[in-house]
Amino acid sequence: MKSTLLTTILLLGFNFYTFSQGETIQEEKYFDIKLAGLNIGEMKATKKQVDTVTYYTLDSKVKFWFFVTINVEHKTQVLYHNDKLIYSKSTSVSNKGNFTSDIVWNKDKYDVNVNSYDYTNKKSINKPITHNVVKLYFNEPKTVKKILLDGFGLITDVTTSKAGLYQVDVLGNKNSFEYKDGKLIQANMYSKFKNYNVVARGYDD
To answer: In whole angstroms, how far apart are CA 70 and each of 95, 109, 196?
Structure first.
């Protein structure tokens, strides 16, 4: 990293569980990934916080048939400092290839380096980011209008059609997130292969 402060914050975020000072606040949420009603994988969302640093991770594994068997392991790591995004890194490992996405705050802008399936993006983002997709797994976006698509390095719109239901624009397609009592219960996700659902474990629709 070009900034010593940024490097320090990143090290704090990725290793704060080793700190003895300050109280660590941690949340874990578990989801099943479903396609046509069948379980094809699972997802774990984690949030850790120490003082002004918050670290999110999103881990998922899926396996499904789409003319051939598709295996995908995906991980997103996100770091916030004082509610401003500092770093977001997404990695996907699959039998279609390995893909990465990095968004890093550098002085006065975000450096973007996205190399995903059939998509690349290196265009900088010039405004501070306060919300990204991973946050949707922990907080209902009642007042959120713009959000970062971590895997694309793009800022997109968040809209709502009724109480507890939100849509996120993904390159002209829609992901929807449904909440009950402020908690995410299920999401419908767009995919170039097949759309799928992410359902909170223990929720029966």
So the answer is: 7, 36, 14
